[in-house]
Structures are given as structure tokens and as C-alpha cells.
Design a protein that fits this description.
438 residues, alpha+beta, Serine Threonine Protein Phosphatase 5, Tetratricopeptide repeat, Immunoglobulin-like, five-stranded antiparallel β-sheet, three-stranded mixed β-sheet, 13 helices, 12% strand
């Protein structure tokens, strides 16, 4: 940070120097003829007139006229010769202007940076060497945020300033203050979908994590402005899940995943949440599906032959687009997982892409686990298991529950495996080493 201010001071100093030098510059040397040499010339001319008069070439009247003429020329040249000397000193107006610039230019530069720049980024942990200095940095950030809040009281229509203040309060974990600042920013920029999504997030934090009420109103307003706004879609899915509307949550998160980079951490995290919600939906629908099956088999006239054949064909088609097997914990795993650690089972393309074609989420306590991966577990409509002949399988136990691998996670893999395989053995027998984010 100190290096930044030193560079700024150097730049301002150079700018001030470039402005002051022309104002205070004196007249360059070498202007005009030296007065002493001019006087000698005129003295020689007067002597010549005296000699002409003594020789009788001039009468007294002519001599007086010539002497008067030479005197006038001498006075005129003397006036021109002293003018550059008077101009060599800087005029009072130029000196006054130079003083004003010297006083105002550095101050104006600092004020403009505080208003148009982002001074908070200067306070980084890398600039401090020990814990007390970290605490000092936090106090300085608080002071800068307070100054920004005071400036906004004098300039209440500064929309960007209110947004910066709201984000600053969010970083400082002051959700109530952040909510008030966001409310002002949204009032000044009602058509900004991203700003409304951020406002909804802060409202939820201030309300104990609830995405209903005012937070939900801001989410819906953001999606009305931009149906593809990523943060609004993520919050809409979470809000639907809080209401118990799992189908709505799936629909919102599918919209979000479809526009995220396949290998991004956000996409993988949403994929894990999608897999869990889909599994819960299927588990809840299973009894209804079983109850409906006998009704399909009771057609008039032909017994159950026709409907049973249709069901068998459907089952065969589904089996051809599935991969099923069993996940077990090997004896050479690096550690023993806790029962509440999260178990992920993935199917990925064999070309090395990290975006799963299907993902199943369970708990480590479910091991050994019989699994089935199919298109219902797809993260994106255009990336499905049925579109591939072979896949790579991976199982991972995560203590943190994160979709992205972390050091210490237990992993196992198998493949390439043909889509349609039914008895795949997937053994978790390894550990993600430090620094690996496979």
C-alpha cells in the first residue's frame, strides 16, 4: 500500500512541475543587444558629427538637428533594451496562479481517487506482517467506510456510492447496515437485476437466512428484470426449497447450471445440490409409481399382455441408458470417514471433461451402497448419460460436503465403463493429496 501512495505522489509531483515551470519561467538569455554596446555606437556617431562640424561640413543648425535625432534614437533603444529585463521576472498573476495550483492539485487528486476509485482494495492482508497490524488494517477500513457513509449523507443521490457502501458493510458482516444501504442503492437504480439479487441475499442474512418475505420479493423482481440472472436463479432455487417446492428448486437450478462454465466450482456445487433434491423427489414419488403400475396392467379383453410388454420395453430402454453397481469402502483408504460425511457418485465423459453426466449424493453411513446413475441425475439437459457409449465412474467421500474435491477426501474410480452396465464395482481406496483439486 505504501508503494502505491509513493507512486501517486511522484505522479502528482511531475504533473505539478510541468504546470509550474512554464508559469514561473524567466525570459531566455540572449534577448536583444547589450545596452553598453549601444551607448558606445551612439557616442561614436556624436564624435563624427563634431568632426564634420569642425571641418565646416555642417552648420550649427544642422548639427543641433542631428544631435537631437541621435538623442531620440538613443532613448528609444534604451527603452527597448530594458523591456526584456523587466519581463525576466515572473508577473504577480503567474506567481499567484502557480501557488493556487500547488495547493489544489494534490488535494484534488486525492479527493477524486476517494470518490471514483476503490481505496478499500489497498488494505490487503499481504501489506501486513503480524496480527496487531491486521487489526489496525481492520480499524482503518472501518474508518474509510465511515467516511464514505458521511460523504453519502451530503450526496444522497450517488447510486454507485451507496452500492459500494452496501458491499463494504457486507464484507464487515453488518447485514442490517448493508440492507439499508442496498435499499437506497436499489431505489436509485431500480432496473439493476444484479443489485436486487445482492439485496435479497443481504436481506436473508439479516433475517436469519430466510429467503421469504422481502428477500423473495427482491428475487422475483430481479428475475422479472433478467430471467437469467445467475445469483437470482440460485437464490430462487434455495427459496423454493425452503418452501418445500422441490420441483421449482430443480427448475431454477437447472436454468442456472445451463449457463455456467461446466468446470466451474459453482456448477459442481449446484450439481451436488441438484442430485440430492432429485433423489428426494424420486424417493417421494416411488410409492405413487408402484400404486399406478397395476392399473396399467388391467386392460379389457387381453389380460395383461399388451401393457406388460410396453412396461418391459420401457424398462429395457431405461436400462440401456443407466449405469448401476455397488460402492464399497476399501481397506486401504487413508482414513475412516464419519457417518455424516457426504458421499458423491459421479459419471463423467471419458474425454476428461469435469462436468458430470450424472451425480448421486448420499452419506458415508450408507456404504456399501447400491447405486444407479441415469439421465434423471443429469446436471444439464445437453449433457446426459444416454448420449455416451462409455463413461468414467468416481466415488468420493467429502468431510466438508463441497462439490469440488478437497485434500483429505477419500476417492475411488472405475472405467471406462459401458453405459448399460449393471454390476460395476466401485471401491473407495485412495485419498486426495494436499494441493490436488482434481
Amino acid at each position: 500500500m505504501s508503494l502505491f501512495w509513493v507512486l501517486c505522489a511522484c505522479i502528482v509531483g511531475v504533473a505539478v512541475l510541468c504546470l509550474l515551470v512554464p508559469l514561473l519561467r524567466r525570459t531566455p538569455p540572449g534577448t536583444g543587444v547589450q545596452p553598453v554596446s549601444r551607448t558606445a555606437v551612439y557616442r561614436a556617431q556624436v564624435d563624427e558629427l563634431g568632426r564634420d562640424f569642425d571641418a565646416g561640413a555642417l552648420d550649427p543648425a544642422q548639427r543641433a538637428q542631428e544631435l537631437d535625432h541621435l538623442g531620440r534614437r538613443l532613448l528609444d533603444d534604451a527603452a527597448h533594451a530594458t523591456a526584456p529585463q523587466a519581463a525576466s521576472a515572473a508577473p504577480p498573476r503567474a506567481t499567484l496562479l502557480a501557488s493556487v495550483l500547488l495547493a489544489l492539485l494534490p488535494s484534488a487528486a486525492i479527493v477524486l481517487y476517494l470518490q471514483l476509485g476503490n481505496p478499500m482494495v489497498l488494505w490487503q492482508d499481504d501489506d501486513h506482517a503480524d496480527a496487531p497490524q491486521h487489526l489496525a488494517s481492520g480499524a482503518q477500513v472501518e474508518a474509510m467506510v465511515t467516511q464514505l457513509a458521511q460523504r453519502l449523507r451530503a450526496q444522497p443521490d450517488d447510486a454507485e456510492g451507496w452500492e459500494l457502501l452496501a458491499r463494504s458493510y457486507t464484507v464487515l458482516e453488518r447485514p442490517a447496515d448493508a440492507s439499508a444501504a442496498y435499499a437506497r442503492a436499489v431505489a436509485l437504480q431500480p432496473g439493476d437485476a444484479r443489485l436486487r439479487a445482492d439485496y435479497a441475499d443481504v436481506l436473508a442474512s439479516a433475517d436469519g437466512g430466510s429467503l421469504q418475505g422481502p428477500a423473495r420479493a427482491q428475487i422475483e423482481a430481479a428475475l422479472a428484470l433478467d430471467p437469467r440472472q445467475p445469483k437470482a436463479l440460485a437464490l430462487a432455487g434455495s427459496a423454493a426449497l425452503q418452501r418445500g417446492d422441490k420441483l421449482e428448486a430443480i427448475a431454477r437450478w437447472e436454468q442456472l447450471v445451463a449457463q455456467l462454465p461446466p468446470d466451474s466450482q459453482t456448477a459442481q456445487r449446484i450439481a451436488a445440490d441438484l442430485a440430492l433434491v432429485r433423489a428426494e423427489v424420486r424417493a417421494g414419488d416411488a410409492p405413487a409409481t408402484k400404486a399406478a403400475a397395476p392399473a396399467m396392467a388391467t386392460g379389457p379383453g387381453s389380460g395383461a399382455t399388451g401393457p406388460d410388454r410396453t412396461a418391459a420395453d420401457t424398462t429395457a430402454a431405461l436400462s440401456a441408458s443407466q449405469v448401476a453397481g455397488r460402492v464399497t469402502l476399501g481397506g486401504v483408504a487413508g482414513r475412516k470417514p464419519g457417518p455424516d460425511e457426504v458421499l458423491f457418485v459421479y459419471a463423467r465423459p471419458i474425454d476428461g471433461s469435469r462436468m458430470p453426466l450424472a451425480v448421486l449424493r448420499r452419506k458415508a453411513s450408507d456404504l456399501p451402497l447400491d447405486f444407479t446413475l441415469d439421465d434423471s441425475l443429469a446436471m444439464r439437459p445437453d449433457l446426459r448419460l444416454s448420449g455416451h457409449a462409455q463413461v468414467m465412474l468416481q466415488a468420493r467421500i467429502s468431510a466438508s460436503g463441497q462439490a469440488m474435491p478437497q485434500p483429505g477426501d477419500l476417492v475411488g474410480s472405475a472405467g471406462p465403463v459401458a453405459v448399460g452396465s449393471r454390476q460395476v464395482q466401485l471401491v473407495i481406496d485412495g485419498e486426495v493429496p494436499p494441493g490436488d483439486r482434481r
